């Protein structure tokens, strides 16, 4: 189980986009995530007539290291750390370290 999952609302805690919030669109591997609207770069794209793609300068999101983002806690309105807990029925769930509340989903 991972601390940051697809669909989590996260905050960038360091780097060029520090303080920005976004939703995780993809978890690429153990260390990198894609966040909507974060770490955007301009890439030069070649046209591809077979796929009906136009060339030019394209803005796209690049992966960001998972250590540079923290999960947003809606109760405290701050970024928070995540821990794991096993419930009585045997389920392993994620919880916020600051107030002990379970993460939704």
Summarize the structure.
This protein is an all-beta fold and 105 residues long.
DSSP strand count: 10
- Residues in helices, as a percent range: under 10%
How far apart lie the N and C ends? Answer: 13 Å
Strand order of the largest sheet: 6-3-2-1-7-8
Mean pLDDT across residues: 93
Largest sheet: 6 strands, antiparallel
Outline, from the CA principal axes?
Answer: elongated
- Beta-strand portion reads 35-45%
The CATH topology name of the domain at 9-79 reads SH3 type barrels
Question: Whole-number radius of gyration?
Answer: 17 Å
- What is the H/E string? EEEEEEEEEE
SS-based class: mainly beta
The low-confidence parts are none
Describe this structure in words.
The chain has 105 residues and is an all-beta fold. It has a domain at 9-79: SH3 type barrels. It is built from no helices and 10 strands. It has strands at residues 9-12, 21-27, 32-35, 40-45, 56-61, 64-65, 69-73, 78-80, 82-86, 92-96. It has a 6-stranded antiparallel β-sheet with strand order 6-3-2-1-7-8, with no helix packed on it. A hairpin with a 4-residue loop joins strand 7 (69-73) and strand 8. The chain is elongated. The relative contact order is 0.22.
Annotate the secondary structure layout:
Elements: E1 9-12, E2 21-27, E3 32-35, E4 40-45, E5 56-61, E6 64-65, E7 69-73, E8 78-80, E9 82-86, E10 92-96
Antiparallel strand pairs: 1-2, 1-7, 2-3, 3-6, 4-5, 7-8, 9-10
């Amino acid at each position: 189980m991972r601390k940051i999952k697809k669909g989590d609302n996260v905050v960038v805690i360091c780097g060029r986009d520090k303080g920005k919030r976004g939703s995780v669109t993809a978890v690429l591997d153990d260390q990198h995530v894609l966040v909507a609207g974060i770490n955007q770069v301009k890439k030069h794209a070649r046209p591809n007539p077979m796929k009906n793609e136009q060339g030019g300068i394209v803005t796209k999101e690049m992966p960001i290291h998972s250590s540079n983002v923290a999960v947003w806690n809606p109760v405290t309105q701050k970024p928070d750390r995540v821990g794991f807990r096993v419930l009585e029925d045997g389920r392993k769930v994620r919880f916020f370290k600051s107030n002990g509340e379970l993460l939704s989903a």
